[in-house]
Design brief:
The protein contains 28 helices and 50 strands. It has 1006 residues and is an alpha/beta fold.
């Protein structure tokens, strides 16, 4: 362990995603560099006039008198008020914020008195942005992921088994919602899809509403923190006064519309209090409780008083004003999942079915593994919302609360901010991921992964060798199954296990089998060093038992879930009831040996340990080097505990939190069964039931150090990838979540635009432009004189048609923000036109095309030719372009064409380096007889790899309008491998010396 405790703080403006986003992310500077609190959730609207009533009085009461918070989290109706502008002006004058305007329900009729598909008046939206600037914080994507899972996924037909298609369905649903709000959204998640919202580029902050009947907060904020760090967003929290059974109300009591209400109903006061301080420790930049802050009171001057809910909220706001940031949460462990996983907990509010992902696909082994991991870290997390005693909303953390959830498109600097990575779920090791994990381990990290990640992979030979070396094995053999009553020997201890599957492997030299299957002697867990770090490779596909642990009978069962505004009862065939006050079966667990090994790896990262497994504890590193530790008791008994620390950290003091009398109605949950006189555990500290305490630790040996994530300069500028014959460019982007990490955009064939309707293209282009993916349009494949495009005007009718179609392509490509169009000359006509005349005619046509392109801000590029075309050589092409003198016509150098006609690449670079404005990089095909053909092959596997790399190195330091990987790739691994090869050539040139010097040396070879 290093001498300092490194914690990481997200600064959106320093994250590369900040500039990739369509909508500007909220920064701490926007929030006044302080943690903000929400307050009003709706303005009072006069039923007759539609005006906002007494808004100055309301604002005074909530933001000045009670100081509840400066964030106005408002219901949409105020947008239509005649005095809307006066209200917004007052908000600005007071320095308040309008945040996450809510109330949208897609597809529902609107009468402006309830939730529905409301339209934002254009004038109102413009006034909010112009008047409030960075104090207007977007529109609400509020709990829509749960609504999608519960209300829309069942209508997908047919259901495809691949998860990419389900992500595409999800994205299409939310693209429509984003467009409705000008793509300036705040995501209030109700399921675990925050990474997808953060990825989209139109979300400016992510968060969740906790309690209610919603998922467990420990897991949820592991997702939210991970998504925030991965995509450069801040996150927020809001705890609801509702639960599955009703809501808290201090003015009345009863039952209506299927829900109970009153002081004892809804979320308990103790849960709300624990949540707001836990979410403070989770580094939420906006905090708050839902509502229910005030009630009438004639004795109080404003005519109101704070309810106990309002008291919790106001006192938390005052505590944070006095004490500031809790420091950055210490989470050295990353749980790494596939980008398209679509995982959700085995049961939740929005579905009567259980063990499903993406709302409709059944759990697979990898999903059960994720459930097993979360169950180990956060016991009973899946019961959140199903029990009146509130179990599962927050849980104990027996191994410490140290983990964030990342998806596989994570960039290396983010991954490198962790110390241990646990690969979870079905995550196949492709080339890019192998490089990421190998780089992480080589730099000192610990990677833990199971065999399925390797067994399901199909890398190239070089990456297969790298993957095996990473896993510490020489080969992956056959899949075997142990006996029903098996033993695993873990570091000399025999552990009984149920039947499980595992691969036979041979440990690589230097690797150690720290666990073996007793009856076969084969390794179950292989531990090996890799660079400065280590890797734990578990030879079981997912580290789980092979058969279901619990017998079940399929019969008519009862389930309850949310449908529309109500929780309804359904009868369905199933393996278990899915109802309140009842668990569902756990069918798969981690093998005991696997669980112990993972737990030990996590526990090695702890710097403060609470020795009572019934408690939750969170550790934050503060700017002054101290630690802030929260200890939380979710049980009904008094819990005793002690602290154990590393690095000579010592307890300095307790930071007293505001208290509420536990005798208040509704302080404890119904059926909580408070046993305040029962004491469990041992140690010199104690904590009462449903309580939270904060402690400060200090040390003289380094302490905590806060870092911001450091990213290299954007490496993608000017780099493009040829994407050939895609179903759609958008689909390619959705399938390749790391595309923007490597490329500024794509080169698309002109036929892509020619064959598609402009209305369809306009819709796709809007998405592509929001993703800031640029486009080059390439006419090369169509410029063949016959039967497609000809640059000759010898056949007048066909020429006119050609020009019209080229104009149409340029118009369509311009929808995508296209700035570059590629052309090439073709053959001459067989008769009636001399070559000189043909070249002159083509020049005139290019002049006409350049004029059409100029209207769209597009520059056209002529590339050197190939056999069968006019002006094959680079010299001829360059001279031709110079002779035309067209301002928006430039030279693009195609190295494959150049190689195929035998040109000396160093000589070309020496002669035309100043004239070349774009590069097209691929390898020509060459047969056994040394005959060339236009294959546009991969660079790295070609006979010309070294020559192309040398050329690319020579260009280092030279600025081009674009550098396009122009090969035809059969999969992403191939494109990634070439991108890495070319990046390495540029990096080596930079290390060796300046680009200019390298270029001069290369040219000298000519």
């Amino acid at each position: 362990m290093p001498p300092t405790v490194n914690v990481y703080c997200v600064e959106p403006e320093r994250h590369p995603e900040f500039h990739r986003r369509f909508a500007r992310a909220i920064t701490r500077g926007d929030l006044g560099n302080q943690i903000q609190f929400s307050s009003l959730r709706a303005m009072d609207i006069d039923n007759k006039s539609g005006e906002i009533k007494d808004f100055n009085k309301e604002l005074d009461l909530y933001t000045k008198h009670y100081k509840i918070g400066n964030i106005l989290w408002l219901f949409y109706k105020f947008l239509y008020a005649p005095n809307f502008k006066a209200f917004v002006d007052e908000v600005k004058a007071r320095g308040l914020y309008i945040f996450d305007i809510w109330g949208y329900v897609p597809g529902s009729m609107l009468d402006r008195s309830s939730w529905g598909e409301y339209e934002v008046p254009e004038e109102a939206a413009a006034y909010l942005r112009e008047t409030l600037g960075n104090h207007f914080l977007g529109f609400d994507n509020g709990e829509q992921d749960g609504r999608y899972i519960g209300g829309y996924t069942s209508m997908i037909s047919p259901v495809q088994g691949d998860r990419r298609s389900h992500y595409a369905h999800f994205q299409r649903h939310f693209e429509q919602l984003g467009n409705h709000f000008d793509n300036q959204l705040v995501a209030v998640c109700s399921m675990h899809f925050c990474h997808y919202f953060a990825k989209e580029g139109n979300t400016i902050m992510i968060g969740a509403e906790t309690a209610q009947a919603l998922p467990n907060a420990n897991v949820w904020y592991a997702y939210l923190r991970g998504a925030g760090k991965q995509y450069g967003l801040l996150w927020f929290a809001n705890a609801s006064i509702w639960n599955r059974f009703g809501y808290k109300d201090f003015e009345r009591e009863g039952f209506e519309n299927g829900y109970e209400f009153g002081p004892e109903s809804g979320s308990s006061l103790s849960l709300l209090r624990r949540l707001i301080y836990v979410e403070y420790m989770y580094n939420c930049d906006i905090l708050g409780l839902e509502w229910g802050f005030t009630m009438p009171d004639e004795l109080d001057p404003p005519g109101t008083k704070l309810t106990p809910v309002g008291q919790i909220h106001a006192e938390a706001a005052e505590y944070v004003r006095a004490n500031g940031s809790p420091g950055s949460m210490y989470t050295p462990v990353a749980i790494l999942m596939d980008f398209h996983n679509g995982w959700t907990p085995p049961r939740h509010l929005y579905a009567h079915e259980y063990y499903k992902v993406w709302g409709t696909l059944p759990y697979e082994a990898g999903d059960y593994q994720v459930h097993a991991l979360f169950s180990m870290l956060y016991p009973e997390y899946e019961n959140a919302g199903f029990y009146r005693d509130e179990r599962g909303f927050l849980t104990a953390t027996p191994h410490g609360e140290l983990a964030d959830v990342l998806f596989s498109d994570v960039e290396a600097p983010v991954l490198g901010s962790y110390r241990t990575v646990i690969v979870a779920g079905k995550l196949v090791l492709d080339a890019e991921l192998i490089d990421k994990l190998a780089g992480f381990a080589a730099a000192g990290g610990h990677v833990i992964l199971c065999a399925a990640a390797l067994a399901d992979a199909s890398p190239t030979a070089d990456y297969e060798a790298k993957a095996l070396a990473l896993c510490g094995i020489d080969s992956l053999g056959e899949l075997r199954r142990s006996g029903e009553n098996s033993e695993i020997v873990l570091q000399g201890r025999a552990i009984a296990e149920r039947s499980f599957d595992y691969y036979s492997v041979v440990c690589a030299p230097g690797a150690e089998a720290v666990a073996r299957v007793a009856d076969s002697g084969l390794p179950l867990i292989v531990q090996s060093s890799y660079g400065l770090g280590q890797v734990s490779f578990i030879t079981s596909p997912y580290g789980l038992n092979a058969e279901k642990l619990v017998p079940y009978t399929l019969e008519e069962r009862e389930a309850r879930c949310l449908m529309g505004p109500d929780i309804v009862t359904m009868r369905t065939i199933g393996a278990a009831d899915n109802i309140e006050e009842q668990d569902i079966p756990r069918f798969y667990h981690y093998l005991s040996a696997v669980a112990q090994h993972i737990a030990a790896a996590i526990e090695r990262e702890r710097i403060v340990e609470v020795d009572n497994a019934s408690l939750q504890y969170i550790v934050n590193g503060r700017a002054d080097g101290s630690l802030l530790v929260a200890v939380v008791n979710h049980t009904a008994a008094v819990q005793r505990f002690s602290f154990r620390t590393k690095r000579a950290f010592k307890l300095a003091e307790e930071l007293a939190l505001p208290q509420l009398p536990d005798t208040l109605p509704g302080y404890y949950a119904q059926q909580f069964g408070n046993r305040d006189r029962e004491v469990e555990g041992s140690g010199d500290q104690l904590i009462h039931p449903a309580d939270i305490r904060l402690f400060k630790f200090v040390t003289e040996q380094g302490g905590a150090k806060t870092h911001t994530l450091a990213f290299a300069p954007e490496p993608t500028a000017g780099h493009f990838l040829a994407v050939r014959q895609p179903e759609s460019f958008k689909a390619e982007l959705l399938a390749r979540p790391t595309f923007s990490h490597h490329f500024q955009g794509a080169k698309l064939d002109a036929a892509y635009f020619l064959e598609r309707d402009i209305t369809w293209l306009r819709t796709e282009a809007a998405y592509v432009r929001r993703r800031k993916a640029d486009v080059i349009v390439d006419f090369t494949s169509l410029l063949n004189h016959y039967p497609q495009f000809s640059l000759l005007d010898n056949l007048k009718d066909r020429y006119a048609d050609n020009m019209a179609r080229i104009a149409a392509v340029l118009e369509k490509a311009a929808l995508y923000g296209c700035k570059h169009a590629l052309f090439i000359l073709h053959r001459n006509a067989e008769n009636h036109i001399m070559e000189e005349q043909a070249i002159a005619a083509m020049g005139a046509t290019l002049r006409h095309i350049a004029s059409m392109a100029e209207q769209h801000g597009i520059t056209i590029y002529l590339q050197n030719g190939t056999k069968g075309r006019l002006l094959k050589s680079t010299a001829e092409t360059a001279a031709f372009i110079s002779s035309l003198g067209i301002p928006n016509l430039k030279l693009a150098y195609n190295i494959a064409h150049s190689l195929s006609i035998g040109e000396s690449i160093p000589e070309v670079w020496k002669q035309y380096r100043e004239q070349i404005n774009g590069l097209l990089l691929s390898a020509p095909g060459r047969d056994d007889y040394c005959q060339f053909y236009h294959q546009y092959g991969r660079i790295g596997t070609s006979a010309f790899a070294a020559e192309i790399q040398a050329f690319v190195a020579a260009t280092a330091g030279r600025s081009f309008d674009f550098i396009c990987q122009d090969a035809t790739y059969s999969n992403w691994d191939e494109a990634y491998a070439d991108r890495r090869l070319l990046a390495a050539a540029l990096a080596e040139a930079a290390i060796a010396g300046t680009g200019a010097a390298a270029g001069a040396d290369f040219a000298a070879e000519g």
